[in-house]
Write a structure and sequence with these properties.
7-stranded mixed sheet; 10 helices
């Protein structure tokens, strides 16, 4: 029994160190980034600093620059069939794909998507937008990165052909979105927002949804916090963004305050990808 415990501890330590070495280059959707994010001065910071307007604006600038440059190159490879990915990146690819499949299953279980209007906020390279359009939905897909939306549009034309007209792509942050949609989706984006700003964004998304909101977030638990602390000891060479985790209670509270109630939940966890998925519908 003691040998087994020792082996488990060695394996966990090895995975934590391996993750830490690669954490900075693959921060965007990597839930084990932890709830204690890097603060304004690069030190471990209190939430007050993280949720200040200056920090939020800085986060937006960093996210935009990252995903238009080195981040785009990295994540475009991850969300493709490229073999030029390492173990961690391939694991994240697989985990994100599982989350997308769960969203699509919910949509399919509720009947035909044909004719539904759907907003995909933070669409990335179109991993969700394209299969939604294949199902006949009219999709408005946006991302803060012009490089991402350009790649998503390219992929949609390649995969959908004439049906690519079912998707309208645009470059925009969440704050600037507008319109009314049957369903609003926001997958693996909340990791870029501190808790208070996350609540504001949930309210924003709910305000555009006529019936349903589907969103995912990296869960805040002691284990992921531990991984983030280890990660901060091993800074990587590339510039990345901050990563924020959220307690499920905080996300549910934000949804309820916006007039929505959670109907379905899922959790996806691989070695290096962790995501809580919630579906909430407008209260009657």
């Amino acid at each position: 029994e003691n040998i087994s415990k020792a082996m488990n501890l060695i394996r966990l330590t090895r995975e934590i160190i391996f993750l830490s070495l690669l954490l900075r280059p693959v921060v965007s959707f990597l839930a084990p980034a932890g709830s204690v994010a890097l603060g304004c001065g690069g030190k471990l910071a209190k939430p007050l600093c993280l949720s200040s307007p200056q920090t939020v604006d800085k986060d937006k600038e960093e996210v935009t620059e990252y995903f238009n440059n080195s981040g785009f190159e990295r994540w475009n490879k991850i969300y493709s069939e490229s073999e030029e990915v390492n173990k961690v990146q391939r694991d994240i690819r697989d985990g994100h794909a599982v989350t997308i499949e769960k969203v699509l299953k919910w949509v399919d279980d509720d009947g035909s998507a044909k004719g539904l209007t759907i907003c995909d906020a933070g669409c990335g390279v179109g991993s969700l937008s394209i299969p939604l359009a294949q199902r006949g939905a009219t999709v408005e897909a946006s991302d803060i990165s012009s490089a991402m939306t350009a790649e998503a549009e390219r992929r949609s034309k390649e995969i959908l052909g004439n049906d690519s007209k079912n998707i309208r792509f645009k470059t925009s942050d969440l704050e600037s979105l507008s319109g009314n949609f049957h369903t609003v989706c926001c997958i693996d984006v909340m990791i870029h927002y501190p808790t208070q700003k996350m609540s504001d964004m949930v309210d924003k998304l709910c305000g555009m949804a006529e019936q349903r909101v589907i969103l995912s977030f990296a869960p805040d638990t002691w284990y992921y916090t531990l991984l983030k602390k280890f990660g901060s000891l091993f800074p990587g060479p590339s510039k990345t963004t901050r990563a924020y985790l959220h307690r499920e209670d905080d996300v549910v509270k934000a949804l309820e305050e916006a007039g929505f109630e959670v109907k379905r939940t899922e959790f996806t966890g691989t070695n290096f990808y962790f995501s809580n998925l919630l579906e909430a519908t407008r209260k009657q």
